[in-house]
Amino acid sequence: MIHTCVKLFVPLLIILSITNLCYSASSSIKTSIVFATLGKLSYNFDIYTLPINPTPSPPFFAKNYDEVKITDGTSVNFNGHFVANSSPIFSRFNSRIPRQPSIDVVYVTDRNGTTNINFDSVNVDSLSRTTRIDSVEVDSLSRPGSRSALEVSTRVQVPLLKEGISMKDRPSLVGERLVYVSTHENSGVPRTSWAAVYSTHLLTGSTRRLTPKGIADFSPAVSPSGVWTAVASYGEEGWGGEIDELGTDIYVFKTRDGSSRVKVVEHGGWPCWVDDHTIYFHRRDPGDGWWSVYKANLPRVGRVRSELVKVQRVTPPGLHAFTPAASPGNYEFIVVATRRAGSDYRHIELFDLVTKKFKEVTRPITPLAHHLNPFISADSTRVGYHKCRGGSNGKQILLEYVDNPKNEFSLFRVAGSFPSFSPTGDQIAYVDLDDGYINVVNIDGSNRRTVFKGRVFTTAWNPVRKGVIYTSLGPTFASERTKVDIISITMDDNEISYKKLTYGGENNAFPSPSPDGKWIVFRSGRTGYKNLYIMDAEEGETGSLERLTEGPWDDTMANWSPDGEWIAFASDRENPGSGSFEIFMIHPNGTGLRKVIQSGSGGRANHPWFSPDGKSIVFTSDYAGVSAEPISNPHHFQPYGEIFIAKIDGSDIQRMTYNSYEDGTPTWGPTYMSPENVVKSADGPRCAFEDCHWLNINPKGPKYGCLKTEKSIPCNISVGGKC
Predict the structure, then answer these.
(1) CATH number of this structure's domain 45-388, picked from the four choices 3.30.2130.10, 1.10.260.40, 2.120.10.30, 3.40.350.10
(2) Does an H or E element contain 15, and which?
(3) What gap in Å lies between CA 466 and CA 518, rounded to an integer?
(4) Cα 77 from chain centre
């Protein structure tokens, strides 16, 4: 543990190379941080399974209702892996294993914002089958995750790891050892993922890191013998900011200690083994642009070298096929996820390696749902995957408590964006993700109401004038000349009034009031560049307007300190137009400009917000890169934002969130919120999320149309145009 804090203006890339950073509480008064995560609170995933009978042509399973839900219907369960009944783990839990036959899996679970890896052994007779009534999926038997089912010993559920605050990607059980990914250790390299492969002995708890320091490894897969592990890896070059295909290579190493590490395939991800010398993987074909599955044949004698590895394409162009799964010694078929033209959804399909034909697995059962990341049992009789569970999805969460290593504040994820606390800390305003309206709610979830209906972003409360909220009316991520204006919303005894504070619409946005409530700092593109201005908080720019910053760059996302001495903001002034943003601070009179946070070369640090005592800031940054292959997740605009805190001099930086989602727009309020979820309603998430947008594009080009035809949701095309 270090005893001297890193001092003023040190870039984030240097500060975060220290694992144990000093941090003192901002105040003895406990507070709360609330932030947004794109879509996460609508992901109620469970792991499902279907029997495989590859001989008949579709349907190749016994009947449509043979799909069963394995996991318990609690929160988010994903990235499963079947466990063979002969596994030594059974000796540990022998007295608690339900009567056979059972289905046994290890999987990642995210409960109350804390990820862990669970082992579940479930009696087959207790598993809930699913059926469809008018295209709505419902459980036809009692849910195994119910308390009554647990009490009659139909399920054994055991969390396998003590450390639980970091993302765990695609676990495997090898004898008495669990092989998995965690992001709890700093990579020490700017904008390189903290994802690394670890091995934990489940009987002793001893853990060994298998990934070299400074390297990012994803999607580990253990060979049938257990001797080798394959990963998708960055190597040593770091992350370039990619959000679709990461540009990883396939490496293999000894599972026992990470030794004998060697690159076997250049350009590939999501490896899986069929024997100790054959690997399937996916990549986007550089020639035709389709995601496809490939096979790599490793030499059976002698030292493994990449130039000796033979690679061939397995799945044909014309559809996207990715995240392959195989079972030991099965040379007849693999299972993949696909996105086909004319479908909004990814489905699981079996690909016959002999006939080179696909056979549908999930579409005949639940055609209007996404099915992700398949896996196969060791005897090739079952395929597993995760999807949103049907029927009742439980309670809708408004504020999800997220475990964090500090006890000076509580950390919450809100079911919305751009949250902000009222001056007294008893209410939160936020932009609802469903309709884009501004809602205000008490911190206990009560008295939720809509205060503005319109296309808005950002919220900020006036600290003096009761019930006054400022927002930006117009589209986000728009050019300097786009029509965006700042308005004030006044809530007075159930009466709501609105007032326009800027005119002309030159992208006036991100208002933040001064602590005395008299002034607002905001960004405006009125000169052709987005710079900062200060105006009268009540009359707007007609009352008073002064320019604070000036230059051919973007200054934005400003936040006024509680003592009125500083304004923190994000800016690309060191590399205008690059998309790289750092955090700066400046006095309201335009003096004292200094850089506080930098996320490496080309990095992003955005959305600064002061702590209630003004001694710290919370912000979002891409320093930690991505935590999983983006294609293995639902769509995120930027699947790499995490929440960090720091002192206002740039020291004592700590990472607060560890996941594969996009975290952003944090706020820091004066009230300590109880560390438990706040329920929004009795109705659970609708799972209304989209697939990765870059899978919507037809690789042949815009003139051939888009893959999506069922809905008219726009997607970007690199050469221009809309889907």
Answers:
(1) 2.120.10.30
(2) helix 12-15
(3) 13
(4) 14
Please give the single-letter amino acid code of residue 411. Answer: L
The most distant pair of C-alpha atoms in the chain lies apart, rounded to whole Å, by 81
List, run by run, the mean pLDDT of 10-residue segments along the chain (723 residues). 31 36 47 92 89 59 66 91 74 56 90 86 68 37 31 71 85 93 87 92 93 93 96 80 87 96 95 97 94 94 78 96 96 96 92 96 91 96 90 74 85 95 97 90 94 94 97 90 95 90 95 98 96 98 97 97 98 93 97 93 92 97 92 83 94 91 95 91 72 81 54 32 34
Q: Locate tokens 């609170």: which residue?
A: 41
Query: Cβ atoms within 10 A of the Cβ of 216, count?
Result: 29
Distance CA 674, CA 205 (A): 31
**Three-state DSSP state, 91:** helix
Q: Are 261 and 274 in contact (CB under 8 A)?
A: no
- What's the distance, CA 400 to chain centroid? 15
Cα(600)–Cα(580) distance, integer angstroms: 9
Half-sphere exposure of 249 (CA within 13 A, CB side): 15
Q: Locate 62 and state its tokens.
A: 């016994």
How do residues 519-559 score in pLDDT, each as one tens digit?
999 999 999 999 999 999 999 999 999 999 999 999 999 99
Cα torsion 217, 218, 223, 224: sign: positive
| Close Cβ partners of 287 (under 8 Å, ≥ 6 residues apart) | none
Chain segment 402-417, per-residue pLDDT in tens: 988 777 899 999 999 9
| Residue 632 near residue 325, CB atoms below 8 Å | no
- The residue among 549, 548, 588, 589 whose CA lies nearest residue 572 is 549
In this structure, which amino acid lies at residue 109? T
Instruction: Match 């604070």 to its residue by tokens.
Output: 548
Q: Is 308 helix (H, G, I), strand (E, B) or coil?
A: helix
CATH superfamily assigned to domain 12-23+35-40+394-681: TolB, C-terminal domain (2.120.10.30)
Q: What is the DSSP string of 503-532?
A: -S-B--EEEEE-TTSSEEEEEE-TTSS-EE
∠689-693-695 over CA atoms, to 5°?
Answer: 115
Question: What does each C-alpha distance from 484 to 159, 487, 515 come to in angstroms?
Answer: 49, 10, 25
Stated as kind and residue range, the H or E segment containing 232 is strand 228-233
CA distance 211 to 169: 14
Contact between 647 and 37 under an 8 Å Cβ cutoff? The reply is: no
Encoded tokens for 363: 């579409």
User: What Cα–Cα distance (Å) separates residue 226 from each residue in 222, 276, 313?
Assistant: 6, 9, 26
CB atoms closer than 10 angstroms to residue 67: 25
Sign of the dihedral through C-alpha 714, 716, 720, 723: negative
- How long is the chain? 723
Residue 124: HSE in the Cβ half-sphere, 13 Å Cα cutoff: 10
Which tokens in the block code for residue 228? 């080798």
CB 471 within 8 A of CB 462: no
CA-to-CA distance for 191 and 246, rounded, in angstroms? 13
Domain residue limits, the chain: 12-23+35-40+394-681, 45-388
Domains 12-23+35-40+394-681 and 45-388 share a fold: yes
Cα 415 to chain centroid distance, Å, stands at 14
Contacts of 35 (CB under 8 A, 6+ apart): 411, 412, 413, 414, 419, 618, 620, 643, 657, 663, 664, 665, 666, 667
Neighbours of 152 (CB within 10 A): 11
